[in-house]
Amino acid sequence: MAVEIKSKRAVVSKAPYELYMTFVDMRNFVQFLPEDKKQGVNADYDTIHAEVQGFNIGVKVVERVPYSRIEYADDGAPFQFRLKLHFDAASDPYKTDFQIVVDAELNFMMKTILGGKIKDGLDKVVDALVAMSEGRMPEGVDPSMFNK
């Protein structure tokens, strides 16, 4: 069953090109992982692969529209999905109207169990991105993890 899940929209305090450049290279995602989670993660410009709870999961970039959209797709995941990041110009040229959209093939049970959790997770990513762009620590992140 095809399911579309949209995150909240939020204004990030970075220009669209700055925010886009953070997500365009899959190697950038590895730096945000805790040290103990980096083992077994392989990334290049277009793809990232890892083993998570016994599952091999991969994501690849399938489309880049400079400074406005990046689309990712599963590349060896337990279910098919596409993830689209939208970087829209805000009224302030140094800010971005940001949103994440997921299109996934989920059976009824997976949709029932995961649908709300995926939406909550996407909203938390957007909130964290806004917080970091404003120089604040995202909610739920322990600042001591950066002092190692």
Q: Which percent band covers the strand fraction?
A: 35-45%
Structural class: alpha+beta
Order of helices and strands: EEHHEEEEEEH
The percent of residues in helical segments reads 25-40%
Count of distinct strands: 8
**Number of distinct helices:** 3
End-to-end Cα distance, whole Å, is: 44 Å
Uncertain runs with pLDDT below 50, 5 residues or more? none
Cα gyration radius (Å): 16 Å
The general outline is: globular
Mean pLDDT: 89
State the major sheet.
8 strands, antiparallel
Question: What is the secondary structure topology, with strand pairs?
Answer:
Blueprint: E1 2-6, E2 10-12, H1 16-23, H2 27-30, E3 42-43, E4 47-52, E5 55-65, E6 69-74, E7 81-89, E8 96-105, H3 108-133
Antiparallel strand pairs: 1-8, 2-8, 3-4, 4-5, 5-6, 6-7, 7-8
Account of the protein in words:
This protein is an alpha+beta fold and 148 residues long. It is built from 3 helices and 8 strands; from the N terminus they run E-E-H-H-E-E-E-E-E-E-H. The protein has helices spanning 16-23, 27-30, 108-133; strands at 2-6, 10-12, 42-43, 47-52, 55-65, 69-74, 81-89, 96-105. Strands 1, 2, 3, 4, 5, 6, 7 and 8 form an 8-stranded antiparallel beta sheet that branches. The longest helix is centred in the C-terminal third of the chain and has 26 residues, at 108-133. The chain is globular. The model has no long low-confidence stretch (mean pLDDT 89).
Structure summarized in a few sentences:
The protein has three helices and eight strands; from the N terminus they run E-E-H-H-E-E-E-E-E-E-H.
